[in-house]
Amino acid sequence: MSGKANRAVQIFAVIFAGMFPGMLALAQGGDDSLESQLAAKYKLVKLGTDSTGLAVLDAGTVLVIKKGGIISVPSGNAVILPSTVKDGQVKATSNTAAQGVGKLLKWKGVSDPTGAASTDTKFLTVGEKVYVSKIDVNRKDSKVALTIIECDTCNSVQDPSNRRAQVIFQFPKDYLGGADGGQISDVINQILEIQADDAGQEKGQDAQGQQAQAQPAAQQPAAAPQPPPTIQLGQTPDDVTAALGQPEKIVNLGPKQIYYYKDMKITFVKGKVTDVQ
Question: How far is CA 90 from the centre of its chain?
């Protein structure tokens, strides 16, 4: 091969090497990519500020929390403690992570004006509605992460808090390479279900109303009263959460733990209920 031909081959190789990353990025982020399919499925909320603080400029897709265990932090926190979903189960990061951030900042001599190391954590409740503010797809680690923020107007709260959370969905190795947006959203919907639109709700209500009118009142079974949950000494944290759901706040004091509910405080010592107030 002549010197000119050799140089031409080298130049082409350099050009192709420069083009290949861009071609790969285009293939992953194109109109039919997983990212674009999820972006079409979950419209992101646009946030801004006004005289009252954080404000929603453009409401996105509203999701309804279907399972407990998603831990949230105040909207001003720079650090979000992630909750991981694997095989349909939600596992929240403990306050130890936030305490670790605080120790690191203190060791570095950095102030914490944003409350990044705050341990003001709270579980989002089942049925609560949230917006999606960010979606990240990590093919290398087979993860899809949704950053969410409370939809205070949807939840009809008097004191808006706009708490934030991050839910990381862990998939089997290399799963994202061949999955589409529908398969991923099916998994997400087990934890964060897209709210039905008003038209769909009205149609469902109309159909239920017509069926109820078609049946004689005597044929409609009466709903059996549900007994109130019972908390007893010696029960485990799993027993309590199965009866009452996830607590609003957990305080860890070594062998002693305190679960705070709306109108109840439950104390555990060595994993057993010792006091209820």
Answer: 9
Count of beta carbons in the 10 Å neighbourhood of residue 98: 23
Residue with tokens 């936030």: 98
Gap between the Cα atoms of 266 and 257, Å rounded: 8
**Contact 256/264 with Cβ under 8 angstroms?**
no
Question: In this model, does residue 124 exceed pLDDT 90?
Answer: yes
Residue 259 identity (one-letter amino acid):
Y
Q: Which of 192, 204, 197 is nearest to 168 (CA)?
A: 192
Token pair 């109820």 is found at: 212
Q: Which pLDDT score is estimated for 198?
A: 45
Q: Which of 137, 131, 102 is nearest to 116 (CA)?
A: 102
Residue 184 CB: number of other CB atoms within 10 A? 21
Given a contact cutoff of 8 angstroms between Cβ atoms, the answer to whether 152 and 163 are in contact is no
Percent of the chain exceeding pLDDT 70 equals 68
Torsion of the alpha carbons at 256, 260, 264 and 266, rounded to the nearest 10:
-20
Q: Are 186 and 97 in contact (CB under 8 A)?
A: no
- Say if residue 89's pLDDT is above 80: yes
Q: What is the tens place of the pLDDT at every residue in 18-75?
A: 444 444 443 455 568 999 999 999 999 998 887 777 788 888 999 999 999 999 999 8
- From residue 33, how far is each of 38, 171, 182 by CA, in Å? 9, 17, 12
